[in-house]
## 1
Amino acid sequence: MSFKPSDHLSLNKPIATDGKPEIARYCFYDKDLFIYRPFRTLEEVFLYFPTEKSRKFLQSVLVNTGGTIENGVITGGTNEEYWWKDNYTNQGLVLKNITSTIVETEEIVGETPIGLIDGSNTDFISLFNFIPESLIVIVNGLTMKNFDDYMNIGTQLIRLNFSMQIGENIIINYKKQ
C-alpha cells in the first residue's frame, strides 16, 4: 500500500512541492477510515514510501512499535520518531532523539507535538499515548479548553478548532498511558 496523493486531496491538507500532503509525510493515512496514524512498523514505512522520489532527506516519520490497532487507532506500544538519513536505502531511517521532558511520574511536560503550523493544518500528534483527561494544550502561552478550542481523538491525536499561523507555537503536557 504505497502513498497515493489522490487519497489526500479531498482533505485540504497542505501540499508540498513534490505533490504529497505534508501531514502524510510522517504518518500513515488510512483512506478507508479517513484518519492519520503512526506507522506500525518500519516495514510499513518502506512500503508506504517505496522509492527515493517518495522519501525526503531529514523528513520525520512516526512509528509505533508494540501497539495494537483497532479501527485505525493505535493503543499502547511506544512511539518513536525516525528521520530519513538518505533517500535511497532502507537503512536510511535513523532514530531521532526525543526532546520532551519525561518526569518520574510518567508526565510529559513541554512536548511540541508533531504537526505543521502553516495556516491550514489543525491536527497534531503526541509522541506517546496520553490519558485523555490529563491533556493540557497550550497555544502561544494560553491554555486551551477541551471542546471549545480542541478535541482529542483517541489517545494521540489533537485536533484544534482553528489553524495556527506560521510563527505561533503549541506545547502539550499530559500523563502517559
Note: The first helix runs from residue 42 to 48.
## 2
Amino acid sequence: MQLEVIHRRNTALLFAMKALFRLLIFTASASLLGGCTENGKTVEARFELSKDSRLPSWYLPRKNTDRSAVDCNITLYTGGAVRFQITDNRSVESAYGLSKPHPIMKGMTYNTFPNYTIINVRGKSDVYEQRGPTHFLHITDDPRLTSVVEWSWTMTKATTAVWKESRPVREAIRRALLDERDPIGIGEDAEAQSEYDTYVPVIYRILISQGSRDELLAYLWSIETEHMGLVGDRQATEKFVDRLRNIIEQAGR
C-alpha cells in the first residue's frame, strides 16, 4: 500500500512537471506571436491551420483545388475577434469571426494542452484544437466536442436554467472523479481539488445524450493515457464508467 501511494505521488509530480515544462515553452512562443496592433486591434496570437486538417466549414474551395495547395492563417485578437486569410494558387480570401473557449476548457488556462476554441465565421462554427505549444491548429470533428458547439454559442436563458438545474449531477460526477477514481492521486490536496473540473462537462454531455458505454470509456481512457500521460488501469476505468452511468440513472428517478 505504501509503495502504491508513493507511485501515485510520483505520477502526480511528473504530471505537474510536464505541465510546467509546456507552460515555459508556450510562454516563450506566445511572446513572439502576440502584442502588436493590427487595424486598431491588439493581436493575441497568430496560427496556421495544419495541412492535415480539414478546411473551415464556412470556406468553399474552388473546384478541384487540392488541400495541400490551400494555406489558412488565423489571427486572434484581444476580445475574441478572429481574422482568417486563406490562399490557394489563384486567390486570397479574408473573413472575420468571433472566438470563445470551448466549455471543456472551463477552469483551465490558455497554456493547457490540448486546448480547444470555438470559432464562428459567417454563421458556421468549428472547434479548433491546439495540440501543443506550437502555432499549428487542427479542426476536430470529435462528436464529444462538437455536440456542444451550437448549444455553447447560442446559450439562452432556458438553456442556462437547465444547466444550472444540472449542477447537483455535475457535482456528483466531480466528486466521483476525486473520491472514487482519482487517477493522479490528488486525494485531499486542497489546492488541486479543481484538477478534474475540465472533464466534467464532456462526461455530463455524453451521459445525458445517452452516449454508449464504449464512448464514455474511450473518453476516460484517452484522458488517463493521453492527456495525463499515465499507463492507465483499464479494469478500474471500466468499473468507473458503470459508476458514472449509475449517477445519471439515480438522478432520473
Note: The longest strand covers residues 92-101.
## 3
Amino acid sequence: MERSSRAIEEALTQSFRFIILVVGIIVISIFLRYTLTAHRGILGVALGGLSIALLIYWLGEARKQTKGLLRDRKKSLIIEDDVDIIEQDTTITVAGRIPGPSNLIRVGLHGRRLKIIGGSNFSREIKLKEACKIDNYTYKNGVLEIQLRKSGPARA
C-alpha cells in the first residue's frame, strides 16, 4: 500500500509541475503577443526575442515533464504487489486495489487467465494454476475481491 501511495504522490507532483509549465507557456505567449503588437522598435524586438527564447525553453521543459508523467503513470497502473491471491482447497480469492469507478470494473476468465479491467485504462491479467469459475466479485472503496471456484477435484 505504501508503494502505491508514493507512486500516486509522485504522479500528482509531476502533474502539478506540468500544469505550472502549461500556465507559464500561456503567460509567455500572451506577453509575446503584447510586446510584438504594442512595442515597435528596438525594445519590442528585444522583448520579443526574450519571450521567444523563454517560450522555447518552457516548451522543452514541458516535453520533458510530459514524458516523465506518462512513463510514471503507466508504471503506477501496473499493480504487482497490491494483489493478494489466497488459495484454499476448493476456492481462490483474489483481492487488490483497482482504479474505479465501479461501473467500469469488468472481470472475466479466459482459460486459466483472470482478466481484470478497471478505470483509468487499467487492465491486468493473472495466470491461474488451474481452471476456475468465477463465483462472484465485489468492488467496494477501491478494493476488488474476486471469489473463484476451482473446476477440478479438491486436493486432500
Note: The first strand starts at residue 83 and ends at 87.
## 4
Amino acid sequence: MPTAQPVTAHSVRSPDDARQPAGADAIPAPATAQGPATAQGAAPADANGGTSRPARRRPDAARGQGQWALGHREPLNPNERMKTDDDGLHCRARIENSYRYTGFDGIDPGDLRGRFRWWGLYTQRAPGIDGGRTAVLEPEELEDKYFMMRIRIDGGQLTAGALRTIGDVSTNYARDTADLTDRQNVQLHWVRIEDVPDIWQAVEGVGLSTAEACGDVPRVILGSPLAGVGADEIIDGTPAVTEILRRFIGSEEFSNLPRKFKTAISGSPRQDVAHEIHDIAFVGVIHPEHGPGFDVWVGGGLSTNPMLGQRLGAWVPLAEVSDVWAGVISIFHPPGGPGVRLDTHVYAGYRVPSYYDSLVAKLIVHANTRDEALARMRLALDSFIIEGIHTTIPFLRELLDEPAFVAGDIDTKFVDRLMAERKAGAT
C-alpha cells in the first residue's frame, strides 16, 4: 500500500463497503447553519406604512425535486435514469446483433443519446444547424445519422501498425477524417452504425479500443510523451497504464461513476501531463529510502467547477499504482453536491500514523436557511463512511437532532454541557 510517514495499520474504506462507521474519535465538525435574519414579533412594513401580507407558499413546495442535498432521491435526471435502466457497456451487444442491421432508425433513444458513449460514440449535429438553435430544437432535429467515434490511445503510445490501421479505418469508414485530441485520443467522423462492428474488429486487432472513451467512466489515461525513452525519466509509468487497462477498463465495477474520471501517469521530472487537473494523477518522484515511485495527486478538474488537485503526501511503488488507482476511485463518492464541502487527505488504504492529527477531515455545508443546512449535513454524515479508526461521525449525527442545536441555541461550551448532562444521566 502507499507509504505515509509514519504509518500504522489503520485503513479507510469505501462508502459502498459498509453502512455504519466504527466508533467515535475526531473527524468532521458540523457547520453552523445561518439563514436570513428576521425580526421577532413584528410583521414587515410595506412602502405605504402598512403591514405586508406574508409570502404565500406554493402548495408543492415540500415535494422532492431530486435534490440529493435535501434527501430526495427521485426524480433522477435523464442521464442518471438512463444509467439506472441499463449499464452503458451492455449496448455493444445490441450494436453487433441488431443495430448494424436495422440502421440508425432502429436504435433505442436511450442507447443513441446515452449508452453509446460508453463505446466512444456520439451523434453528429446535422449540417446547417448553428449553435444558436441548439437550445430550441429537439434532439432528433439536431442529429445527423452519423457518429463521431473516439479511439483511446492510453499513455499516448501508438505503434506504426496501429497508426496505419487508424488510417485505413479513416479512409474506408470515416471519409478520411481523424482528429488528434489533447487527451491522447483519435476521433473519427461520419461513421455509420452499420460499420461500427467492423471498425471495432480492426482497431482491437492492433491493441486499441473505444471502450469507455466517453461517458461517466474512467477515460483515457494520459502518459508522458517520453515514457520509456526520456534520458532524465525518473520511472516509466507504462506498466501501470497497462495494468489499469487490463484490470478495470471495460469492467462494470467502475462503469457507472457520477461523472467522467480522468487519470494521468508520468515518471518524467518535467511534469508533462498537467497532473493538477486530473481526478487522480501519479507523478514520478524518488523516495529517500525506497527509490523511484510516484507521488499521488487527487481531486483536480476543469469544466464548470475548476479546481487544482491536492497532493496526498503518499509515495506509491510502480507495482501498486493500479491498486491505489482502484482504491481512490472506489471512495470517490464523498458527501457532495451544492453547498457541501469536504476537506480531507485520507483515501482507501491510507495508513493513519499512530500520532496522527485527530482532525482527519472537515465537512462544511451551507444553505439559504438553517433547516436546509441541517438537512444537508444529516445527509452528508449519513453517506460518510470511515472505518479502521474511531470517529465522531455517530456523535455528530446525534448532535444534529438535539433540540437546542436545531434551534441554534448554542455557544462554545455547548458540547461540554451536553457531554456533562449525558454523563450525569448515565449515572
Note: The CA atoms of residues 228 and 350 lie 29 Å apart.
